[in-house]
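Box S1 | Example of a co-folding query
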Amino acid sequence: MSMTQIYLYQNEFVAKEALHISPEDRGYYFGDGLYEVIRVYNGKLYEAGPHFARLTRTAEALRIPLPFTEDELSAQLEKLIQVNELHEGSVYMQITRGAAPRSHPFPASAEPILMAYTTSYQRPVATLEEGITAVTTDDIRWLRCDLKTLNLLPNVMAKQHAMDQGAGDVIFHRSGTVTESSSSNVMIVKNNVIKTHPANNLILHGITRLVVLRLAKQEGIQLEEAAFTVDELLNADEVFITSTTAEVTPVIQIDGKAIGSGKPGPLTRQLQTAFEATIPSK
Ligand code: PMP
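Box S1 (continued) | Returned holo structure for 4'-deoxy-4'-aminopyridoxal-5'-phosphate
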């Protein structure tokens, strides 16, 4: 089935082919903007509230005034899902500071530009079942990794590094302290206790991370928001990553070393099951 993709551009629904973005958009030459990816299960936005809260927080930090309220944006995204007949997948949205001749200071009168589209895909059942491999690498990013900005070059370079090594993803560390992955958060299990990096300026405050914290509590699993080392990572009983698209994905081998038994561990499985139960049905 081939269907024209409809994009949301500002307040209008426009066919992809008819969409024109200014070459002077600051997102294009400065990466001056922010984005969000919200999962859609059964045609419904998943955890929209926390995504909008993070969007608002990033916009405030970047001093990009949002041209709409949360309710307005939410209604527009729901409409976008409908017009594209999306059942399973996600909504990508970005907001840039606007278009203006290239000059570093904020332009006096730029209008922020919103663009959003939908992508259709299924849950990653194979990697959820089997897990992925990873390689550790230096976290060379800036000190505001808590902001979801368009500046993803270090993440892109790191992900390609993983691909070049034949691995599924990277695990970043700063001088031996594990932070997160290229597009997901990282959790380890040791002696039935989960550890994950505190939600400070060094990691993105993942929405899936939040969901898993909540689920761990519900399931009576002990969880510490505490930094851990690469050494602890490699010697963990279980490792998994969390993100909107990866959900709870086991990591079974890191830097060529098997994690635990080399198979997805029991607490990872328990959290995967608990996560599945949060997915809205029709
Ligand atoms: N860390 C980074 C660097 C990311 O890009 C993402 C994905 N947006 C995450 C963590 C996971 O966040 P979420 O669970 O909200 O998708």
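The mean pLDDT is 97. The two ends are 23 Å apart (CA to CA).
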